[in-house]
Amino acid sequence: MNIKNKISNGVNQKGIAPIAIILIIIGVLVVAGGLYYYQTQTEPDIIQPSPTPSPQPTTQDETADWKTYRNDEYGFEFKYPGEYEMDINKNTPLDDLVFDFTFIHSNGYGFQIRKTNYKNIDDWYLNWRKGFKEGPQEYESGIIINPSIDYVENMEINGLPAKKVVIKGVPYADTVIYFIKNYLYSFSYGGVAGRSRDINRKYSDIPHYWERDDYKKEIEQLRQKDLFLFNQIVSTFRFIK
Predict the structure, then answer these.
(1) Is the pLDDT reported for residue 125 higher than 90?
(2) Percent share of the chain, pLDDT over 70
(3) Which domain holds residue 14?
(4) Domain count of the chain?
(5) Do both 20 and 104 map to the same domain?
(6) Residue 58 has pLDDT above 80, yes or no
(7) Same domain, 82 and 141
(8) What is the 3-state secondary structure (H, E, C) of the chain?
(9) 25 shares its domain with 73
């Protein structure tokens, strides 16, 4: 190899090292620049604070201070408002009626126990429905009534199937809840007929006031208030044996 070639090779070998270093530096800068861009352009994760659970409202038992009626003979009990008094009718006029009482100072609530040969409430209701007479008819003391069934609702009383029957067109008859366990039990609400005197007096100077929408609204509000309390009483019923 002559001197010229040696010089040429030496120059090439010496020139490769700086170029390699430059490429390495450029690579490092590219990577560093990419990391910087990613860090500046990517939004950091936002850590949401854990929500503080809202305090749950405590359910107040509105029947906690009510009286309890307990009947060991037929094995049941239920609660009723403390201001009510029970009027138990021991001389029942019907052969199948074995227990009957109403609440004094109440909103027309009552409770009965009757003998029955039926084992379930559906069969009993079908038979009762066949004997229910609808349409205008003369009642006691010459009063003309026009009974009809407004609606029937399936429900449960202390785990037993029950029927809620709402009746229209009969004085002192509104809602009755029936259920069977050896006997036919029934809770009844007689409606607002005996408690609407104040409302009637308010509209008494207006001809045909019973046809007015505002009068009907007040009567229905009174009825719904009565039914709310009635349903509370029924909800406390339970068998004790």
Answers:
(1) yes
(2) 71
(3) 1-36
(4) 2
(5) no
(6) no
(7) yes
(8) CCHHHHHHHHHHHHHHHHHHHHHHHHHHHHHHHHHHHHHHHCCCCCCCCCCCCCCCCCCCCCCCCCEEEEECCCCEEEEECCCCEEEECCCCCCCCEEEEEEEECCCCEEEEEEECCCCCHHHHHHHHHHHCCCCCEECHHHCEECCEEEEEEEEEECCEEEEEEEEECCCCCCEEEEEEECEEEEEEECCCCCCCHHHHHHHCCCCCHHHCHHHHHHHHHHHHHHHHHHHHHHHCCEECC
(9) no
Classify the C-alpha dihedral 113-119-120-123 as positive or negative: negative
Bridge partners for 87 per DSSP: 102
Assigned token pair, 97: 């009626």
Is there a single domain that holds both residue 212 and residue 157?
yes
In a domain, 112, yes or no: yes
